[in-house]
Each structure stands twice: as C-alpha cells, then as structure tokens.
Amino acid sequence: MEVLSPRARAKRRQITDAARSLFLSQGFARTSMDAITAEAGVSKQTLYAYFPSKTDLLLAILSEALQALGAPRGVHAPRTRDELRAALIGFGERLFDTMLREDSIAMLRLLLGEAVHVPELRRPFVEALPYQLLGRATAILAAAADNGVIELDHPDVSVRMLVGALMSYVIFGGLMTNDAPEHPGAEAIEWLVDAYLRTLTFPEPQP
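Predicted structure:
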C-alpha cells in the first residue's frame, strides 16, 4: 500500500469529506464527480489522481469507517479462555462504537439503497463490510486455536453466530428505526460473547 505524505493524506481526507457530505445529502447516483470537485475545492485532475471513480470514493469512505474497528482491545493472540473472552468483547465494543453512530447508519442506508440500483457496488460492499467483520472475528478465533485455547471446526460458520448476533443490533436498532441508534451496553455484549463461547470446544487440560 502506498504511504501518503501528510499533505497528501490531508488532500485525500478533504475529498472524502466532501464526497461523504454530497452522497448523504444528494445520493450516490445524483452526485457527479464535478460536484465533488467543486465541494472539495480541488481540480478534476487531483480528484481522479486519488479516486478514479465514484465507486472507489464510496468504498474509501466505508473503509475509513471500518478502520475504527482496528484490532480488538486487549489481547491480540488469546492464550486462555479469559483472554479470548476479553478479545471478543473488545471486538463487539468496537463494532458497536463504530456502527451505531448516526453518520455510520446514514452511510449504511445509502450503500444498501444504492446497491439495489448500482450492481457494481454489491460485491465491493460485501467485501468491504461483511467480509471485513467476519475476517476480523475469525482472526481472533484462529489465534486462539493456534495457541490451543479452542478446537475450531468450521470457523466460517462459527464466526457468523457471533457477528450475526452483534449485527442484529445494528440492523434492528439502527438501520430499521427512525430513532437515533442506541448502544445496547456492555452487559449485552458480554452476554452474547458468553453465550457464543459456550458453543466452542475447549480442549480438556492435559494431566
């Protein structure tokens, strides 16, 4: 990945901020690259140097939001059940902190709505959001399995039990409501993680 200078990062952010504002106010299809150029205060040459298309811009905005998920708080390579629990709780906390914000919900609504009419957005959207979430949770489980904490069968199926349960709060408590998105709280995350841990296989301690 190309490392941008501070000036280039600032210019890129200037463009994505302008595009985000226009996408949310006018919609993806109705926003032109010319409008983004004017809103960002950059030349068309500069805009296309950073983003060859509107789709690239939209996915970059989504990627910026997902970067807030980062690595889970606490343990990166769990070596005990407690460390695995802490890592999964950290993942859930970051997921809610990132996704259950009004700007995140607005962007998700935009992406889902536009994907119906813009087929080329569908695959990149799936790769940018669902696959990212599943991949980050799977990485935690795989690290725990490598350390002998769990026996991980069918990780692609197992991880959906956790991510799906967490995302139900984003869907029903964010996307599908007229009210401001509401964080379910630490107790709900802990309960979901504890319920999920009971579905995993923990090897018997060696005598």
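Summary: The two ends are 48 Å apart (CA to CA).
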